[in-house]
Amino acid sequence: MPRARHLASVPANERVTSLDERAWQRRRSPSGQTSELPTQVPRELKLRLYRAMLLSRRLDERLMALQRQGRIGFHVGHRGEEAAILGAAAALRPQDWLVPCYREFGALLYRGAPLSAYLDQMFGNDADPAHGHQMPDHFHSKAHRCLSVSAPIGTQLPHAVGIAYAARLKGKDDVALVFFGDGATSSNDFHAALNFAGVWRAPVVFACRNNGYAISLPASKQTASDGFACKAVAYGIRGEQVDGNDALAVYRATRDALEAAAAGEGPTLLELVTYRLDAHSSSDDPRFYRSDEEVAAAMAQEPIARMQRALFETGELDERADEALRNAVEAEITEALRVAEERPKPALDTLRKDVYAHTPWHLRGTT
User: Residues with catalytic annotation?
Assistant: First the structure.
């Protein structure tokens, strides 16, 4: 795993030692150990989370195949990162804000957004909430308090702090949960956001998906520090490193951070240590920068199998119910894809819809 290699490659006497590790936490279960999964989480929540992970995984696989067939233009998935994304999403309350990067379509679906709406956006058809204005996987939903994905790296971080700070000024207990990858920690927006979140004690939770790579750049080239959670110390906020392949550990850490933020205790930086099993996007070929052996080793620790083992061990799921669940997920995706693909493209007169309140004079009569 890149994470282990990174830590091993940095001698202890060369690491940043001025940061007091007591100011941030590590909450990681041994990789692949299902016994670390908390038992106090209700069975209904575990099964809902597991189903959401199955749907996200299978959806990823189907969409990547569609892209290779030329039926959609682009896809950026989260295969292998389901626990990090959905475990965090499961902790959100209805009033909280979801500020995505671009891999978190599963979080939007978990919050109740229709699968059809997401697929309409992927196909850019006439039911696309963005009217075909955005490239695929640039989803949003006002009804589900989910901001629009934007392609620039890290720009969503200050937005999340602004939302959270505004909520506090209005006397609301809304919290903003913002996702980003380890690559975004090299952006100016990451440092500006954490700085102002700390100064203002903004109710925001920063969820860094440390999936090992910023496109092709390994995490060891992103930072010389001991991971990313420890960076919280510099901004006077809490930081916590969590096993991002353990869905319930992620859920518990995010829930605690959300509760602390809502109680006025300020922001938290969560580092969710996981692994990106697929390419960065459908435009990337990871064979140029990582080995098959590395991916196979990561696959042995992937989160869905861990969750399945945990549910089997506790008797909350058996093989027959698991098979029925997987078949239901497959059928749901197949039908939703059929409907979305058969819909027509947006009409030409929607070209400027939601772009201008009033059409500028120089564009009138052009469509």
Answer: 276, 280, 289
